[in-house]
Design a protein that fits this description.
alpha+beta; Muramoyl-pentapeptide Carboxypeptidase, domain 2; 5-stranded mixed beta sheet; 5 strands; 24% helix; 20% strand; globular
């Protein structure tokens, strides 16, 4: 179970974990994204920290997010799986065989989104 407070949306995550970090109250999370995060949690057997989930437009601009970011719709999360390198998280998502999802490998976290076509990238 997560250490965050608030309304539990499944056995591992609370809605507050997905809330926009600016404090505006936006906290949408897509059901497919939640399902994917749950599979990641259960596969690794370790807590998944949501660094960035839902973003309002103002916060997205402030952090340099793309104009059409999936974070704006609650369809993306930047995550850390405790003790697991981002590339290993990305490899697990790819191993699921989906022809969908956006997977970004960054220093210290993995970006995942539930887009309709497959895309993968790495950032230094």
């Amino acid at each position: 179970m997560s250490s965050r407070t608030g309304v539990a949306i499944n056995r591992y995550f609370h809605r507050s974990e997905f809330a926009c970090r600016c404090g505006c109250g936006a906290n949408t999370v897509d059901a497919e994204l939640l399902d994917l995060l749950t599979k990641i949690r259960e596969h690794f057997g370790k807590p998944v920290t949501i660094n960035s989930g839902m973003r309002c437009e103002a916060h997205n601009r402030m952090v340099g997010g793309r104009i059409n970011s999936y974070h704006l719709r609650g369809q993306a999360a930047d995550i850390v799986v405790r003790g697991v390198p981002p590339v290993e998280v990305a490899e697990f998502i790819e191993s699921m065989g989906s022809l969908r999802y956006g997977i970004g490998i960054y220093r210290g976290f993995t970006h995942i989104d539930v887009r309709r076509n497959r895309m993968k990238w790495e950032s230094a």
